[in-house]
Structure prediction request, 353 residues.
Amino acid sequence: MHPLHGNCCPLISTSRIKVPRICNPDHTASLFLTNIDCMKNIKLIEVPSEIGAGTRGASLGIDAIKIAALDFMSNFFIHFPSEKVPSENKLLYEPIESPYAKRVKGIITMYERVSKAVNDSLKNNFFPVVISGDHSIAGATICGIKAARPKSRLGVIWIDAHADLHTPYTTPSGNMHGMPLAAAINEDNAECAVHQLDDETARYWNQLKQMGKIAPKVLPEDVVFISLRDFEKEEKFLIDKYDMKVISTGEVRRKGPENIVRSVTRYLADCTDIYISFDVDSLDSSISKGTGTPVGNGLREREAEDLISKFMQNRKVCCFEITEVNPTLDKENLMSEIAFNILQRSVNVLMMN
Prediction:
């Protein structure tokens, strides 16, 4: 990567042409640091798994983000130690056994693998940055954090258009990327059940919730949703039941990212650790074509960038995940470029902190 001088920031995309932008003071955090000593404490964990998604292609998201980095002439992906977790995507070619928890056996395998990678990273004093295909992996990431820090009170900042609070008993699709938070809070939502599970599916679901012999791994009151706007009544039932904190896109826009971060930090004050999970469909559908479930009225790129980079200044943050980039649905790799800009700025702030 070329060294940066003066007020120039990393290159960003304007369509196919990469041009430098001039920084204002808020952009100083996005300068890419080249001090190898401070980079050694960050580890990239790549999880090209898409068995939890309903649309094919999310497993290609990591490579698409790497291509975006190359287009920006960035050596981001060679500066940090990384680990690629093997996937179970071969199951996509096999018949579905559990219609209300599709490929759940493969998800259990992914929970074991990703949990170990995150656990090992934290125990070796690395900050894990997880780049995953679909959002079902977030449940595995949470497992890994709790395995490394079983006595911690873990706060979760869930930046996503969707609540991902379905269970096999309530799911309209059977896709496991809609269930990671329900698994993390150890919830069946039996009050809203619309499906009767076979014994095998129920056993696998319980195994997922109990992974690591810690359940719940997160208290419902320690979850904060940001830009949540597309959810079903069964998920709304749980949000209301536990009075879970929801911050809308409109609230972010009215109050500004800095005030939102301050408010969330106060809200999670009793937590000892914080995990940030960023699904790119939290961004407005006008700029998030390259994801499986785009939704209107989402965050602007700069809003997401500012939110996450400001959250990263909190020393309680122990893990960051970015997920659901699907280049097969995209045009000119725009989604991956936006994801990379957010990823790079967030990591830069983390290193400066």
